[in-house]
Amino acid sequence: MTHPTSTSAPPAPRADGRLPDQLRPLRFQNNIAPHATGSTLVEWGNTRVICGVTIEESVPRWMKDQGVTGGWITAEYSMLPYSTLQRKQRDITKGKIDGRSQEIQRLIGRSMRAALDLDKLGTRTVWVDCDVLQADGGTRTAAITGAYVALALAMRKLLAEGKLKESPLPHAVAAVSVGMVAKRALLDLCYTEDVAAEVDLNIVMTAAGEFIELQGTGEESTFSESQLAEMLALGKVGVGRLLAAQQAALAG
User: Fold this and answer.
1) pTM for this one?
2) Which in 20, 164, 166, 200 has the greatest CB count within 10 A?
3) Whole-Å CA distances, 91 to 43, 147, 151, 174
4) Which of 98, 148, 157 is nearest to 128 (CA)?
5) Could you give the CA distance from residue 160 to residue 157 in angstroms, rounded to a whole number?
């Protein structure tokens, strides 16, 4: 008895040759900024972001005034003028941070606060600076994923110096983008895919499998519950691979 052969074709490759569930090549270059307590350059496809962590041995005044115990963590994000095809004006020359940068740095701050036990940190402020050297989509997810590596390196240094008794990092944190492009769910969008996406979704998760943030938008389109479920499943697979890459970077 003969069995019919399958007529289903393999998924069509993307513009850069990847499969729908494939991440772009990812690499961390740790200790890229010697004066930072912890730092890394995350190279994710053609997106490159320097993430640096600096420790200040004090907390914001509002914490003292309100009697809030523990430490604090805050983030700043910027795209350097030469990070895009057309020069991007520095925020300082405009006299204010643009809305997109402000939104992203708040997202990075929330994500890192979820990664850090502020009581175990002690009365310290952690500054996380993420500077985009080259942008090709996914700068916010690269910043979050790289920021965690820089943060882990900084906490390791504080432990080695005897400034911390135990690690204040309960779970690793990583982020990835997913989107619907030509009605197809794709993981880790590059710039051309991001521009063409009908739906754009950014997923931030912990190593415990919990969500920190979901940012989903229909770009002049809507999306169904089944499409959302498909994107979430794809995103969870991607975050798992990113967490493994972070562990490898920190083990080296």
Assistant:
1) 0.91
2) 200
3) 24, 21, 25, 27
4) 148
5) 5
